[in-house]
Amino acid sequence: MFQPHFAYTHEIVRDLMNIERCRTSLEYLQLPTRVRQELAFHAKMKSTHFSTSIEGNLLSYDQVERVICEKGRNTKINAEQEVLNYWNALTFLEQASEEKLPVTLDFIRRLHGIIVQKGKTPKRSAFRQAMPPGVLFAVFDSQTRTPEYIPPEWKEVEPLMKDLTDWYRDEDQLPLPVKAAIFFYQFVTIHPFEDGNGRTARALATYILMLHGYNFRGFNSMEEYYAMDLKGYYENIQMGLPVLYYEGRNEPPHLEIWVGFFLRIMALCAEKIYSMAKDATDRKPQNPLVGSLTPKDRKMLRFVLENHLEQIRTKDLAELFHVTQRAVSAWCRDWCDRNILVPNRKNVRTSSYSLAESFRDLDLSELGFRE
Question: How many domains does the chain have?
């Protein structure tokens, strides 16, 4: 049976207290629905971008966002499919948390299948199998190609994973963040799959926190901090132990190094989340005119307000959006219908417009731009 060794340090206690303080304070903040949605969306986007970038995905944040927003597009390179898979995995975990699905071997296989999906439909993954004769399964350094870690033999994977999930189910004494950190460590130590273990471990830790109210209202994205200190991330999870599992990892070591690192990251993330949410609640109430504006509406309004335009020509808008004047004319009719623009001439073909009176005094800051 898996029995981890762990002792509290002053730093671990301090970070646990900070995590609880931020979590409790965050619950008392009254955030507008739109703010909550935006914070949760960007947290999920950052988790997707940084968790995949840790494994070598080269897509930028903006490229990841484009992949997610255009996910109906069929043609995707591997890097795009990888980020879309992780986004879908987080969506699956959000739904699973609402149903309170337990962390079982089947649940883990199902999650991993989404993370490494290659076809149209994700399939439950199988644990590692025997390697061909003379081939060693190991985690190799990407540059030197020397083994960084040699995990347990494939035939031990399923019993070890069952011990881990049984421990997670039965353990009720440790603070939840500590429990999530230990689960994370032991999962990557077992290394149950041939690929995708790091992404799956981070996703499972997120799910454990989510299940027990430590996802900070959906704004959590610890992967961002791991990615900013990859050297520290790998050194702390290795804890200076031998490369071979059977030379010191098969008897669980004391985990204060990794647990301390995990909690330090979690505390920093919690502090940042609370600060962002507090800033959002302290802002002046949003102008009701702005609430229903689309990104396209905001871009047009910014262009008009920044340039102090009395007359808004379809030709100028076509250049701004890189589309035809015919397309802009259709947009302008919609803007008129929504009382954002008014035509400068009626009953004839209109080629210029003005802002409706209610939008003329908007500040750029109200549109989300700095003046």
Answer: 2
Whether pLDDT at 361 is above 90: no
Residues 223 and 312 in one domain: no
Distance CA 77, CA 86 (A): 15
**Residues 198 and 116 reside in one and the same domain:** yes
Please indicate, yes or no, whether residues 354 and 223 belong to a single structural domain of this protein.
no
Tokens of 275: 């600060």
Query: Do 180 and 103 reside in the same domain of the chain?
Result: yes
- Judge if 308 and 331 occupy the same domain: yes
Same domain? 278 vs 334:
no
CATH number for 310: 1.10.10.10
Q: How far apart are the first and last CA of the chain?
A: 61
Domain span at 338 = 295-367
Q: pLDDT tens-digit profile of 265-321?
A: 999 999 999 998 888 777 655 677 787 788 889 899 999 999 989 899 999 999 998
The answer to whether residues 197 and 83 belong to one domain is yes
pLDDT in tens, 150-187: 999 999 999 999 999 999 999 999 999 999 999 999 99
Distance CA 232, CA 337 (A): 56
Gap between the Cα atoms of 253 and 239, Å rounded: 9
Rounded CA-CA distance 107/95 in Å is 13
Q: Has residue 4 been placed in a domain?
A: no
